[in-house]
Amino acid sequence: ITGGSEAPENTIPWQVLLTISAGRGGGMVIANRWIMTAAHVVVHNNLPVSSETVHIYMGLNDVKTLDHPTAYAASIHIHPNYTNTNNLDFNNDIALIKLKDPITFNASIMPICLPEERDTYLTGLIGLVSGYGLTKNNSRLFSTNKLNYVLLPVVEDNICAKSITSVKDAGKDVPNLTNNMFCAGRPEGGKDSCQGDSGGPYALSDHGRFWAAGIVSWGVGCGEKGRYGVYTRVANYVGWIKKTMQEN
Amino acid sequence: SMWLPDSVPAMYGEVQSPEYPQPYPPNLQEQWDLSVPEGYQIRLTFTHMDIEASPGCYYDALTVLYNGKVLGRFCGHENSADGHHPGNHPILSPGNKLTLIFQTDNNNPERHQNVGFSAQYQAIDIDECSAPEPVDGSGPLCAQICLNILGSYICSCHHGYELRSDQRTCVLSCGGGIFDEPEGHLFSPGYPNSPPHSVSCQYIISVESGFIITLNFSDNFHIESVNTEQGTKCPYHWLQVTIPDREPIKLCGAKSPGLIVTNSNTVTLDYHTDEEGLSNGWSLDYSTHRVNCPPPGNVVKGRVTPNPTQFFYRDYIFVRCDQGYKLMMNGQEIESFSAMCQSNGQWHLPLPECHIIDCGEPQPLLNGGVTFLSGFQNQYRSVIQYHCNEPFYYFFGSLNVNFTCESDRKWRSNNDVVVSPLCIPVCGQPTNHITGIQR
Predict the structure, then answer these.
(1) Closest partner residue to A105 among B392, B432, B433, by Cβ?
(2) Averaged pLDDT of chain B
(3) Which side of chain A, N or C, has fewer Cβ within a 10 Å radius?
(4) Which DSSP category does B382 fall into?
């Protein structure tokens, strides 16, 4: 998280830290046996990672205090239409991890709500993005063990699309923006999600109740001016989420 | 070869004059010998008779005979005043044979052709028993009891006597009389007249176990007794009443003992007279009634049914517990209870008890808990309340759910639901909030 703050205890109880091999990613609790994350977090070299290699931490805000995983993965369910073969296609960047044992919820671990199916997100709504990913200070990236968060508004699709086009025009290969994605961030930059936050929650609040509007997916740089973070539009996947949970 | 049944006389038949219903020929001398089985008599009924009428049936006649004795000589027509016609009255033979002789002369009236007769006969059972006593002094058909049967009769004797080999007269023999019917009548040989001397009769009344015999002597009681200074003695004639496990009672005198309740299902009566003296004897009616069982009592929190004023052998009682209670016997729960009044006057099972039921420990609630609101040890009517671990879980639709221990031993909610409630996780509502005072 760039330009954010350290999260006080029990303020983002759905936050999950995933460590897979040497990598770090985020996730969110959506039920007592289910974690939602980004597909690219649990896919390595175009292959799903083994569930044994996934370590799942939750309930605390400081990675240093987590001496052993909170839960273990029983199975990983990647969206069937996620085909990021060249690392430039983040369409359908969503996956579910089923846990071996159910979690009992408390103040530090709590599920985040899911949106209504096909919910729309109003431009300008402020969302809460969180994760244990890189932070930035004076244009230098830092690793952190503390859970950070930042509040970012939903960006209009056209503005986001233009931002990405401008990058393309500059001759860089970047993924396409699809209807299954939305953008959040500030045009002036500085505040953004970053590497290591992938799979983590972008939460919108409705009358004090947070719901999972997006999953940290990709972006060009972190917190750069005129750039926005791109998030998986969870409302487009509520049907698949329910189906996967029921069938498993 | 083939066996043919013996010729058995017919039970009925028909007799008609020659060439009937055509006119009969002259110069006839026709005879029919009718017979039916022994023990029956013949009833002959004319369906039509048309024989030349003449005074005394002199010319043409039908003569009916039994053993050569003429029962009737008939001629004429049923509608004519001439001749001698039997009309509609049947002719009954004294025995099982009957002879009919039809005679005609050589001359028939020219203007009227007589057709003769047609008659039917049938066997009628003879009630030998109601026949008058023969005048030859041989005595009645049966000395004591006559039973008419079809085609015959049977003689029988009163208790205390048996049939002689002549199958007609009876000889005193009163041993071995066993009475096993629920009620009956007994009397001494010859009662109310004095029997022959030296009578030794035994009567055993023995009914099913569970029944009690009551003797009811008639007032007309007379057994020779001797009055002594010590009171009435029965040295020569007596009736001894023996009831198991009790001292035998010797009865004599002229006063009826009246009612004797034996409290036993077996009573032996021994009647004895010697070769002298005079006793006119006795008679009694005996009856039986079922043994009593004591009232079974009451069951706390239960009901004993039925509830008559008295309980008798083979009566059943049933026990049901009040709602919320279960039947217990010897520490074990039983599904139902019934007990029968036995022949010894005891119930075959003691009464059970009714214990309050319990629903067992309520199902634990995942991510919730249960609290007792009222009642005792999960017993009937106890009320518990489930709750979810707030603020992280909640009941869908309500804050708390009350369950009551019902009579079917299930915890049921007010909505009659049996299954435990479910605690649903609360989502997206952290207990701590990110707040910023600075603007």
Answers:
(1) B392
(2) 88
(3) C
(4) -
